[in-house]
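Weekly structure sync, notes
Attendees: PL, DS, HV (note-taker this week)

Item 1: Sarcalumenin
DS walked through the input record. Source organism listed as Seriola dumerili. Sequence as pasted into the shared doc:
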Amino acid sequence: DQAAGPMLRDRSHIEDTLRLATAEPSAEFSAAMKKLLNIYHTAIKPMEQAYKYNELRQHEVTDGEITSKPMVLFLGPWSVGKSSMINYLLGLHSTSQELYTGAEPTTSEYTVIMHGEKFRSIEGIVMAADSSRSFSPLEKFGQGFLERLVGIEMPHKLLERVTFVDTPGIIENRKQQERGFISLIFLISHNEVCQWFIDRADLIFLVFDPTKLDVGGELEMLFKQMKGRESQIRLILNKADSLTNQDLMRVYGALFWSMAPLINVTEPPRVYVSSFWPLDYAADTSRELFMKEESSLLEDLNQVIENQIENKIAFIRQHGIRVRIHALLVDRYLQTYYDKMGWFSDPYEVFQDIVNDPDKYYIFKSILAKTNVSKFDLPNKEAYQDFFGVNPVSSFKQLSSHCSWSGGCLLEKIEKAISHELPALLSSIGKASGPGCEEKPKNRWRRQ
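Item 1 (cont.): predicted structure, written out as tokens:
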């Protein structure tokens, strides 16, 4: 029985790899963050507001989100050890703060584990009401969801640098009946909420138990939601010491075989094979391999923490590109509408025709032809049917009208931010770190 005085592993390598002994964020880091916020507020947000971008993408960028710590999302079937892994990384085993774990589905909530001055639990409603946090946009998922969102704050060196999110386990279809409380509404909102976290995660740990590899409908759905986020995904074959080496090799192959059709990328995600919990590895298993794999995973996590500001700049630039494309499209719809309007035209019919059949008017093609826009960044046409269904054409001005003597033009500002200001901020950070020849990269965002 594991409770009867099991051997615990040494955890010092976790402290060392994640460099938890370092102190506060450096002045350099704070200055770069301030500059990033300024670029967003002066160059991107005005365009967002003028063309009601948030109503199209439903992705409102808040200051809390820009300044938030990197987020690590734990996904996967139930009872694969997601909560145990968080307990292990934070050293919560056998403490009063330990996340509850068990063989049955235990987490039916989204649990956000973050830094705080003292240990306390926060209700989802309180988290969503606080605009300084990055979770305020979750309010749109309604009361029912907020009751299943819980925050846990605790003083911890690792949580000063990263936030963990534990999610309800995926239950594959044949076990669906066991999850009696699931209704269609729950599933839809669960998928939307899951998407919200996926879109904001810096690292996604998709955890599996090698003894029950079950790839079905819900997991397929999850991979569809993670499309375009493949570089953030890491697959984790947890509890690896519960199998013999031969069986482990077989399961590793089976995992890739079942994942291949779901992940259509040339570079498959990195798979980590180990046992992420505090108890010693089972006898006669690949201890050395597991320890190496764990060290690699910790380095991976550390890299995400170290690259926080670079990732935020890239995120804001990508967001700016989407906002710009949206503004160009709305402008094109407006231009087409004014061109087609005759003396005796019915304004409603003219605009409906354009919205229902944009290809007839080369709306999307003209954007690709005239501007440096990738077809992969274009939203779908249906999104604009919904968008203009809510926002009448009369509520927008053309881009050429969004200019002033003192403030310049909105389009020029956002283009300057995308092409010059954000790349310049990124390269200034690269130079600031200076050439280092130490064995471990210097942690430039923390005072040494």
